[in-house]
Amino acid sequence: MSIIGEAVLTASVQLLLKKLVSSELLRSPGQEKIQAELKQWERKLNAINAVLADAEEKQITNPAVKTWLVELQILAYDVEDILDEFSTKLSLESEATTSKAKRLLVNLKPPSVKFNAKMRSKIKEITKRLQEITDEKNELKLIANSEERPNKVREGRIPTTSLKEAHVYGREKDQEAIIELLLKNESNEGGLSVIPIVGIGGVGKTTLAQNGNASNSEGPRDSSDLNKLQVELKGKLLGKKFLIVLDDIWSENPNKLESLLRPFKSNSPGGKIIVTTRSDNISSMVGTRPAYPLRGLSDDDCLSIFAHHSLGREGFNGHPEYLKKIGENIVKRCKGLPLAAKTLGGLLRNNTSSYWEHVLNSKIWNLPTKEGDIMPALRLSYHYLPSYLKPCFAYCSLLPKDYEFEKEEIILLWMAQGFLQQKDSTEEQMEDLGDSYFRELQSRSFFQQSSTGSSDTSRYVMHDLINDLAQWVAGEFLLRMENVVEGDNNRERKISKNLRHLSYIGHGRCDGIKTFEAFYGVKSLSNLTYNGGLSNGVKMFEAFNDLRHLRTFLPFLPSPSIGNYLSWDILNVLPKLRRLRILSLKGYEITELSDAIGDLEHLRYLDLSDTAIEVLSNSVGRLYNLQTLKLEGCSNLKKWCEGMENLCNLRYLSFSSTFDLEGMPSKIGKLVSLRTLSEFVVGKSTDCGLKELKSLKHLRGSLRISSLENVNDAMDAKEADLSSKKNLTVLVLEWTRRAPRNERKEIEVLDMLQPCNEKLEKLTISYYGGTMFPTWLGNTSFSNLVYLEFEGCSNCTSLPSVGQLPSLKELYIQGMSAIKTVGQEFYGNCCATPFPKLEIITLKQMNEWAEWEDGELPQLRELTIIECPKLQGRLPKHLPSLKKLFIYGCDQLLVSVLSLSSDCDIDIYGCKQVEHRNTIGLSSLNPLVFSDVASHMFLINHFRQRVSEVEYVSIVGYEEATSSRHTGITSQRDVKDDFACLTKLPQALHSFSFLRSMCIANCPGLVSFSGAGLPSQLKSIRIEFSDALKSLPESWMDNTSLECLSIYKCGSLTYLARNQLPPNLKKLEIRFCDHLQNLMQEEKNTSPSSISSSFITSELPATIEYIAIEQCSNLRSLSSSGNLPKALEKIEILYCSSLVSFPVGELPSMNLVTIRIKGCEKLVAFTDNMLQLNPLQVTGSDCSRLCFFPEGRLSSANLTQLMIEIRDCSSLVAFPYGGLPFTNLTKLTIEKCGKLEVLPNRLQQLSHLRKIEISNCSSLVSFPDGGLPSTSLTELIIKNCEKLESLPNSMHNLTSLRELEVENCPGIKSFPPEDGFAPNLTSLAIRKLKIFKPLSQWGLHRLTSLEFLHIEGCPDVVSFPMEELLPASLIALEITDFPSLTCLSSPIQYLSSLKGLQFSKCPKLKSFPKKGLPLSLLALSIHQCPLLEQKCKKSRGKYWPLIAHIPRIEINNRVEDLKFLIS
User: Fold this and answer.
1) Nearest of 950, 913, 948 to residue 931 by alpha carbon
2) Cα radius of gyration (the chain)
3) Whether residue 121 sits in one domain with residue 10
4) Are 104 and 189 in the same domain?
5) How far apart are CA 372 and CA 388, in angstroms?
6) What CA–CA distance (Å, rounded) separates 238 from 258?
7) What pLDDT shows up at residue 1402?
8) Is residue 856, in this structure, part of any structural domain at all?
9) Where are the beta strands (DSSP E) in 402-512?
10) Which residues pair with 1176 in a beta bridge?
11) Which among 245, 332, 629, 1358 would be 20 to 30 A from 1284, CA to CA?
12) d(CA 1257, CA 803)
């Protein structure tokens, strides 16, 4: 049972009373009768307000009271709407001083603010309803409370300490158990271990999973394309061990679960997955071991959580014993759920003991509950919220589960709904009030901070159970539609006629009218016919009539990058919902707005971000009450609307990333209510110049002022009056980079743009053309400034005195190419302690900078200097706090590490010299990177006694080879000759006892290494661009810790080692080593003509899991023994043009899953022993001599999966006569095998074969006589086989076949097949074939599962009888290259599931069926059909009314993948 009757009611009634008291109607002359009515409203609403607390309690057990509250809420909405209407008219009348404003007033309806009979009738109706509600109140015997419920902070409240970071209580044993399970080795499919954690909602599954492992995130990914995400994930995990957490899995669909786990099962031995779920069924379906059941916490642990959130400490020390007793009794009712304890603790924080008792004794604890209901503890947390927070929280029920939101986003929505009303006698801004409300809800655990937010932008989420709670309290006034897909039976949803707020989760790409079918006042969409057309949504609005009171239309769409479309009819309906206060079209591919948008006189919030809109409709200028206008990411927007200056209530205007939009709206200075303005683009005309900022006194937060070169008069900058805008925290002052410059004027402009120093935290000055900075820049009055940036100020010859800024933490300087000296003026000549808090300095691309005078930087933690080629001398000496030093491209600089702390990370890529001494403490230096090896290699010798904990060393020669890998910085520097003299590495490397990884790059003279071996714990070596290297030292081959060896572009390398490779090597990668002949060389030289004698007869290390050899043109064979390592999982041989054969010995049968061979022109044969592999993917491509495929019988009963891909093997003529020996073959791909005439025999016996793809085999004549496997084959693709004479026999028997695609096979002599198509096809594509039967005889209507149909190339078809041809199951239909087609000769409406329709290359097609197209259509594409294109032109074409309901319409623009678009 919901208690939504009161959710927003108390606040609504109080807001109404405030509006009535302050209403201009009460002071407006000539409205005495109306004023008397309003006074009567006020009296009755006060009486009702007095009993609301009693009604809230009684509604729990008395349904009549609940009904009364619902009726009262409806009345409150209607009264607010009428007051808004009246207030708008009166305000416009008072402001109508210009002719333009008068015209605006005339355009608004009704035309006069004098109340006509209709308005008086509305007031009379409200008065009547209000009296009825008052009478019912008396009948229900509701009692006025003399005291307010204790829901506010009171005097004598229980004190708290400041809350610490959240702590996990009572899960130590659970954490240990999960870690033990993770460390346990299990033998199962693919080595994958899936550990389910099962428990009820709120018990802490996610927290346990997060704390049971160390997180290593690469950041968020766009999840709108699951297939793309899976492919990327599979590639990332290939051959690696991993730990993945799949949190909060709900779906019990086995196919979806299998799809979810598929990327983790493929080629990833030793992988671990933790799955958290509430369902035992899910755990049994995905788990490789029994589920770990997570139980509730003990009462003691729950009490610790409760105390932490209510008192700010872990216990009740310092508080009365009776308070602890109350807490214990409350915690017992939390039933061991930490979320409940946390939420109730937040509720009781800062409240009195009597309030605690009130909560403990609440009747809500005793409400009957059933499985799936909201737990009483969470109900209480809502029930005892202050009344002003309840509507704010209830409104959040519109947010999707797991939706991450920014605080500002929610506050703007609350503001638009009128939830943020300032208290009397206070000047508190609505934005500040919203921030206070938000923080209060966060402190009560209704919101929690997301882990994906950046340092600049915090994002928040609602826990699933809190989201459920919001849904529960939302009742019938708020609705979030989820999983709405076209074709769903939405009409069964029960939508209340009282609905006021709607959000929906777009299913992706297209939202048509069926998305909103649930709201239509008709039984079914089929009743909405096109008789006379559905133009402009008139009939649709009649069906939408129940939504006429809607206040919120808020879609949440997938990523805008994939393209989302909304029906034009829906766009036309929205402006007719005249009560809308919030309208979002964010992310839809709409290009224009209806002019009727200006009729939404209640509209406060309009979001057009990420749309394709080109011109902002002038009607937007009529939205008098608009508070928020978002145009972010409207990259096509070119023009502001006229009349923007009329939006006198606009508080928020954001238009970032609108690259084609020039200048600002005319007379923007009239928008005196603006609080947030993302950017001010200085225009050249007077009415959009810089002085327009003068009247925008309330600007706050961030402001970017760009195109400052357009300032005509420096006095305009003074008139902008930035110094009075005390609420600005971030300011960017920007000139255009390559604009004509006026140096003197720019100096004056910047001097006069001095901002207010009170709250400014960040200041950026970009591309300023003056030679000097104003004195205000270093003023100590900027006491809150923490970030300062100068970019591209290339004419300035000195830096400002910023050393005296007391709070500055980060300084970023780039492109100041005229600076030659950084002297004492930088530190502040009169400053005793310069830069007292500066932690980060970045200095980039200062081409003339030569000297940096010494000075103190006591708190500096990070110093970065990049591409300052003339910088000489030394860095400042006093850097006691430095933790990170990065130097790049400073060839004249002397770097001293004498005073650096032992834990400082050092990256040096190019400097003159490094100063050091033997006693330098670098015991924990990590990482250590040096460039210019010839100059710095002595460091290793001197540091060898103090580098025991260094884990990574990079020895780099030429800069351009390392720049992208290490720093992401590109460089055009020339190769230096100094490095050619380096012939060997020092023995001191052996001293790095904790070294894990080493990279040696760009050492062209390096011939050999020291004989001392490798550090004992080294795991990875990468050697690249060292052309003199011929082999690796034998002393390395005994190293038992080395696991990864990578060699790249070492042109002289002929072999790796003489006797063996490191015994525990797991990954071997050799690329672009043209002279490599052998992996291992025999001790004794033999004849080079013998392949087998070219390699040592000993085995490769048995531990190797991955081998990759690429473009080693002299490599002829892999192993003389013929055997590959038993642990091998994947082997790739690419473009090794001398490779003749694959190993002939025994291959690993249990682990090898991928053999990829490409571009090996001399490869003649694979090995018979491939038959033993399990599972296996064989890819052979660009192997023009390959002519042999293995024969024999399957020798391994364990084979579970085999995929064979053969591409560009132009010598392959045939397969073994006996057919393929792989009974468990799952996929067969043959492409560009020009001599292949027949496919393998006995394909019908391959009972696991699921997919066959044959393409570009120009000599292929036929399929085997036996046909194809009838029970396993699901997909058959045949393309560009010109000589193929027929499709496989017995196609009608292929009951498992779902997808058939045949293209450009002109030799087929009978099509369609005589015996018909496979009966269960879901997708059929026929392109460029010779058709021997009329379409009507194909039997397509019998394919009752067919969903996707594409027919291309039917030259004789004149009409297309849809009803006779096509099954009703069809979802997408493409008709291409029908040169004689003139019409669709029968109705298409019966295709009620059709979502996509495309006509291409039908030059004579000129008409649609008279009854139009199905309402289910999401996408229509008309390409190269000139007669039809004219009739379908937007708004003007004859057929536009027939197609306006379709979200995506492409005229003369073919949709390449219609199936993907709508699937």
Assistant:
1) 913
2) 38
3) yes
4) no
5) 28
6) 18
7) 93
8) no
9) 405-406, 448-449, 459-461, 478-484, 501-506, 510-511
10) 1202
11) 1358
12) 74
- Same domain? For 134 and 179 the reply is no
User: Of 744, 688, 675, 758, which is closest to residue 716 (Cα–Cα)?
Assistant: 688
Mark whether 91 and 180 lie in a shared domain: no
> What whole-number distance in Å separates Cα of residue 667 and Cα of residue 100?
13
- How many residues are recorded in the chain? 1463
**Same domain flag for 66 and 185:** no
Note whether residue 1003 is domain-resident.
no
Per DSSP, the three-state class of 1302 is strand
Whether 57 and 131 share a structural domain? yes
Handedness of CA 1360, 1365, 1367, 1368 (dihedral sign): positive
Residue labelled with tokens 């209530």? 649
What CA–CA distances, in Å, run from 1193 to 294, 973, 1164, 1218, 1395? 50, 60, 21, 9, 48
Does any domain span residue 1161?
Answer: no
ω before 1312 within 30° of 0 (cis)? Answer: yes
Asked if residues 1135 and 1108 have their Cβ atoms less than 8 Å apart, the reply is no
- Tens-digit pLDDT profile for residues 341-381: 888 888 888 778 887 887 887 766 766 665 555 677 777 78
Q: Which residues pair with 249 in a beta bridge?
A: 277
- For residue 956, the surrounding DSSP H or E stretch is strand 952-956
CA distances from 1127 to 239, 525, 1150, 1251 (A): 11, 61, 8, 29
Q: In 10 A of CB 1324, how many CB atoms?
A: 22
Question: What contacts 772, CB < 8 A, 6 or more positions away?
Answer: 747, 796, 797, 798
Rounded Cα distance, 500 and 255, in Å: 38
3 state SS of 441: helix
Contact of 389 with 441, CB cutoff 8 Å: yes
> Residue 82: which of 46, 121, 47 has the closest Cα?
121
pLDDT higher for 633 or 445?
633
Most distant CA pair in the chain, distance = 117
Q: Same structural domain for residues 202 and 269?
A: yes
Distance CA 582, CA 33 (A): 33
- The strand pair at 552-556 and 565-566 is best described as unpaired
- Secondary-structure percent of the chain, ordered helix, strand, coil, rounded to 5: 30, 20, 55
Residue 483 identity: N
Please write down the HEC assignment for all residues of 672-724.
CCCCEECEEECCCCHHHCHHHHCCCCCCEEEEEEECHHHCCCHHHHHHHCHHH
Residue 1307: burial class (beta carbons within 10 Å; 0-12, 13-18, 19+): middle
Interior/surface letters 1077-1099, b for 16+ CB within 10 angstroms, e for the rest = bbbbbbeeeeeeeeeeebbbeeb
Taking alpha carbons only, the member of 667, 635, 668 closest to residue 653 is 668
Token representation of residue 158:
């229980």
Instruction: Give the whole-angstrom CA distance, residue 1311 versus residue 1331.
Output: 6
Which residues is 1301 bridged to in the sheet? 1277, 1325
> Do 109 and 42 sit in the same domain of this protein?
yes
Specify which residues 728 forms β-bridges with: 701
Pairing of strands 905-915, 884-896: parallel
Question: How far apart are alpha carbons 1199 and 1190 in whole angstroms?
Answer: 16
What is the per-residue pLDDT for 797?
92
Residue where one domain finishes, among candidates 139, 157, 190 = 139
Count of structural domains within the chain? 2
Each residue's pLDDT tens digit, 215-236: 445 555 555 555 666 666 766 6
| Residue entry with tokens 């019409």 | 1383
Domain that holds residue 29: 4-139
Q: What is the pLDDT of residues 559-592, one digit of tens each?
A: 655 678 888 878 888 888 899 999 999 988 888 8
Residue 176 within any structural domain of the chain: yes
Taking the C-alpha atoms of residue 469 and residue 477, their distance in angstroms, rounded to an integer, is: 15
